[in-house]
Amino acid sequence: MGRIWILVGERLALGVITLLVVSALIFVGVELLPGDLAQEILGQSATPETVAAFRHELGLDQPAIQRYFHWLLGAVQGDFGTSLANNRPISELLSVRLGNTLFLAAFAATVSIPLALTLGILAALYRNSIFDRLCNVVALIWVSLPEFFVAYVLILFLAVRVALFPSLSNIDPGMPFGELVYRSFLPALTLVLVVMAHMMRMTRAAIINVLASPYIEMARLKGMSRLRVILYHALPNALAPIINVVALNLAYLVVGVVVVEVVFVYPGLGQLFVDAVTHRDVMVVQSVGLLFAAAYILLNLIADVLSIVTNPRLMGERR
Amino acid sequence: MKTVGKDRPPLLTIRDLRIEGKSTNGWTRLVDGVDLDLARGEVLGLIGESGAGKSTLGLAAMGFTRDGCRITSGSIGFDGIDLARCGEHVRRDFRGKRIAYVAQSAAASFNPAHKLIDQHCEAPVVKKVMPRAKAEAEAVELYRKMRLPQPEGIGFRYPHQVSGGQLQRAMTAMAMACKPDLIIFDEPTTALDVTTQIEVLASIRDIVEQFGTAAIYISHDLAVVAQMADRIMVLKNGRTVETAETRTMLSAPQEEYTKSLWAVRSLERPRQERGTGARPVMSLKNVDAGYGAAKVLEDVSFDIHCGQTVAVVGESGSGKSTAARVISGILKPSRGEVLFEGRKLPADYLSRSREDLRHVQMIYQMPDTALNPRQSIRDIIGRPVEFYLGLKGREKEQRIRALLEQIELDPAIYMDRRPTELSGGQKQRIGIARALAAEPKFIICDEVTSALDQLVAAGILALLARVQKERDLALMFITHDLATVKAVADEVVVMQHGRVVETGAVETVFANPAHAYTTHLLQSVPEMDPDWLTRRTMSNRAVPA
């Protein structure tokens, strides 16, 4: 058991280093954007003197390196600074938005993961049957379409033609749970359709790959039913790739929702991110970027640890 | 050996069974009209080369065909029910409960994700033969009967925590879980060392006798089958060659094919006089080597002379292949040196001259993986010809032709084929040609025949002997098969736990082994005498090793 904690420690340390690198990259990236906040707020007609004075007030005239370390030091202590655009503390802004994004991600995940795994297992069980092919074709179609298109199709059919769900997902943490689910249904459904295919196909492929193993033939020669062979003999040995693809898609649900949030005007991190970029609100852009990176690293760490924990060959004490 | 009673009731009656398998050009016959009778409690040995249909027939006795195979006609009568025609649920119900299977590689056939005892109890519990607690108690009892160490605890380990020989016994115990009427043993000891094999064979035979279980014992090794079976059936290309009581079959085989199988075992090498005082081609001097902290070789020294074959024997993990890696410069020794014609070779192959590299060539165990499947034979052999001898164009072409002729493959046919289009034996011949292409003085042969059938292997050994004579080659022959040693080697080096325990001329060492391990190794080699195992286990128990 001790080895797993050492591994977690190592991965966490690596994750922190990665985050540092990412923070620097984000900072440089934002620096490279043409124009700055002062320019943006004051408009084209402002005199160079006013712009300079405003820059000084915002602290934008300090050298980049200094600003970077100032920001980093604050971020480490949980203080992301104040939004340059509206002077509110960024951490306050983030916490509400993060909560919303996590809600949407959790919503999409609770539907898509069990569904994808079940369909993947069934497709492996009845492989090359009509069911298997149908699953594959449908999944492939949804994953091939750009997500904004999927979103608009859903809006057209489920919000416009038949007014089942609202096309704008205007939510507020104070709403009752049922209302939250109802309002965020369409963005969640879009995400489900987008991430399902990947997970389902990987589950199917991982299981079919294991089915060629001698121990599967052995299980069949022990007279076990097809379902038992798949669930008890094949699935535990196919977990590692499945866990990894699930983690990747979870990360996508948190990090990659920008487009979907914008289409449905969902008040999440993605929406905030896009707004911040348009306003050159660099502090917010940096903070959201850092948060995305952290979520990505953390989910991958969890996936690695789970793959090891579920594999007795890696977990068990050596003889 | 059990007495064979003709009066025992029949259990399995296979009549005119035909099985086909899907191949690239339609269906090919795997089993072609085989009849087979097995009485209750009887053990039938199935023998033949790979592709003879042994496994297909063994699985068919369970009403099972691998994916891509089908039973086209015939019947498989098991205790009054035709397994070829009954419903799948009937067959499935029989499997694991009344007919069980023991696979060739227990290491691959146990599910790595579950503990041994969970896998053992699966069939009895799922098939409602007995509750879990009873199944567990019986598992421990069976583990004890199979002479597994710590029978109470071993079941709670995962397969990777148990050695190969123990796994094979645990698998036999698992097959016994529901007290089946019939067990199919599919080459259960082929992957084991001889010293492990003998223990596994003895425990399998004991338990089969104890429970009066009927068995079909599949093997390509006659001597092993002779120990286990009451009757032997010889298969070739899916047809029965002959069937007879074990003793009759051994003493008086009727068919030519059977006789040829028997004859392979008695291959002997004409003795060769070694020029005394001559400088050895290759020497290891006091070599220590290891991987990381694990020391694999300790103080290993031996010489190999011109025109001579030195066999290096020992069980897996004894350091045979590591010694070869040191000689070829892939692994740097931590102490000691490698001498080529009396001159010290650099430890790392990267610092050796092309000339030094040319004189040390290698032939590998698995011709399938040792040849690049994307290259044609011309490229595979042409590369060393060009690299070492600097031949190009017409000269290179002629050289490749000459090499192919030397290994008895027609250049016109094989030159532009790829390895996948060749049989196992042909691939190994290409491996030999590739080594010869460099015109070396010394070749390391690493288990070159262990992946091949006996008759094919005999052909490869004869070829090696011929080219050795023509070119006065020195060969280092790594093997775990002592019968091969007798057939090919002048001298033998016996290794155990990374040390050389004995060296000497083959006749001397085999006739008068000086070290206890050599004796143990020699006595573990199955002999054609059906009473050999009984004698061996009796004496082993009298004098514990």
From TrEMBL, chain A:
It is a multi-pass membrane protein. The keyword Coiled coil does not apply. Keywords: Cell membrane, Membrane, Transmembrane, Transmembrane helix, Transport. GO terms for cellular component: plasma membrane. This is ABC transporter permease. One of its GO terms (biological process) is transmembrane transport. The keyword Cell membrane applies. Residues 98-303 form the ABC transmembrane type-1 domain. It is found in: Cell membrane. The chain crosses the membrane at residues 12-30, 102-125, 137-160, 180-199, 230-263, 283-309. Belongs to the binding-protein-dependent transport system permease family.
Automatic annotation (TrEMBL), chain B:
One of its GO terms (biological process) is peptide transport. Its main location: membrane. It is a peripheral membrane protein. GO terms for molecular function: ATP binding; ATP hydrolysis activity. Residues 12-262, 282-522 form the ABC transporter domain. It comes from the Bacteria. Pfam families: ABC_tran (PF00005), oligo_HPY (PF08352). It is found in: Cell inner membrane. GO terms for cellular component: plasma membrane. CDD domains: ABC_NikE_OppD_transporters. Keywords: ATP-binding, Cell membrane, Membrane, Nucleotide-binding, Transport. PANTHER family: DIPEPTIDE TRANSPORT ATP-BINDING PROTEIN DPPD, OLIGOPEPTIDE TRANSPORT ATP-BINDING PROTEIN APPD. Belongs to the ABC transporter superfamily. This is ABC transporter. It comes from Pseudaminobacter soli.
